[in-house]
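Review session, final week

We close the course with one last complete record, chosen because it touches almost every idea we covered. It is Hypp357 protein, a protein from Branchiostoma lanceolatum with 469 residues. Go through it on your own first, then we will talk.
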Amino acid sequence: MTEQLTTDVMWGMTAATVVGMAAGAYYLANRTVQAPWPREKQLLSYTRRVQPKKRKIQLPLNSLDDFVPLENMEPVNDVAGFFTSRGNEFSVYSIDWEQESVVFVRPVDGTDLKDHPFFREAQRRNAAEILSIPFSHLQDVVDAIRPKVAHVQNVFVYMTGRCGSTLLTRAVDATSVAQAANEPEIFSIISMAVIRSRRSRQNQDFSLNPAVSSAVGSNEDDMVTLLRNVVTLLNYHLVTADPRHRDVIVYKMKFDVLLIGDLMYRAFPSAKNIFLYRNGMECLESWINLWFRSKVVYSLVRALIRRGLWRWAPMIPDYFLCFGDDAKFTEHSNGSGVFYAMAIWAGSMHRALELQKMHPEYFFHCLLHYSALARGKEKSLRLLLKRLGLKWNPAEDAEEAEKMKKLFVQDSQAGTFLSARTKKPGEKWTKPSPSSWLGDWERDYMSKVCRATGNDIPGPDFIFPDTMW
């Protein structure tokens, strides 16, 4: 008994140490200094010079609090005229629910926002000036520029996470037939507002951001209009800023946006849609490799989870929790990041299947499995573009062929904290170790999480019909 007590005390001390380290890391990553931004509804549009706050890792969704104001606000009286002439400089960045406005950023002169793997991160790091347009003025701006982008064809990429979507986006953007933006944050900002609103109606104890409630309430018609308007404004920026003015624009979004797929269908009935996914166990292992970097560290954390000593998911933003916090997963939740990663995969797959059943002609024009992309990158890209009605042959352009060749050997997330094996931009992709960190416990747990969605997704090996794989 003494030996067991000593063991439990040691495990407790270990757990306390690991949790303390995680808490410290979470604080350092998320600490913010109260910025002098207005916290009430704004009636006029304005610009303001800013300086980005220095953060190596950005976990919360983008907001005005990412910047330190450098000068006073400059009112913009004719914002429709302003955007018509300078909209190529400003891209949609965020929504300030308290100000009831859409926030745009202008980067430092000479910046190419496509150079960074993530559009949202490039916006934040390179911002020199913001433009804030109240909801009440937004429609006038959209109406002024809409004729110039009426011809644009939008494509939306939905995905499970850790499935090659960043590589796909960068590859599309390297072609001559389409351009792409990887994870503009605006989709998740709207998605999380809708998810909170829906769950607050289902559960009176669910906390709804009062700023969101006062701005848009629970009127999803307003959210559909907001989605349509911000994408029109993003289209205008991307088409006018692109030297080739490519008018097929692909937006890859985070996994949470699947939960508002019904609103995306209403907002963009003529858009085309892609679903990119991966085997559930491979997806889980990719998350675990990214977080823990060492099999020894993960083995320790796994032991803590199994003993019930790790019921916390540090450094995980709200959008990462949106699937796991769904009531259907409550019985299987242990509060760990491992559980939430499983719930993201199972929840994303289940939601994609739901959307297919609701609108089979719309969801999806192409289903792509990670294995096909990993096995034949150029072939998969060519077939995907063909399914979207786009003809692309890199052999016809030697410069484009060489560009694509270099891109396919690079780690598409190199230089970001989402790359498990590289640190510097441009580093080559390397194969992960063939030895798996996962075992029977993870597979059994994943199977239970999958079964919580019903019988539609029986396990981590599920494949959608008509998938390129």
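Two points worth writing down before the exam:
The chain has 17 helices and twelve strands.
Confidence is low (pLDDT under 50) at residues 1-35.
Good luck, everyone.
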